[in-house]
# Entry
Amino acid sequence: MKNKKSFRELTDAELDNQVAEFKKEKFNFRAQSKAGQNENPAKMKELRRNIARVLTEKRRRTLAAASAAPAAN
# Structure
């Protein structure tokens, strides 16, 4: 599991890649769960939270850029 600090160190492109990777992993995990091959059901919760962490960081950066732009003018 990654923490908030590690997501803050990533670039925007890396954050996009992380979201895509987590969503793909979540999809595969869900398919395994339906097939009865799931060994760790808590992993779904962890994946959802990591997706939320990445999206929150992206939103924080968007808001920071938007608030900095009018101040520069």
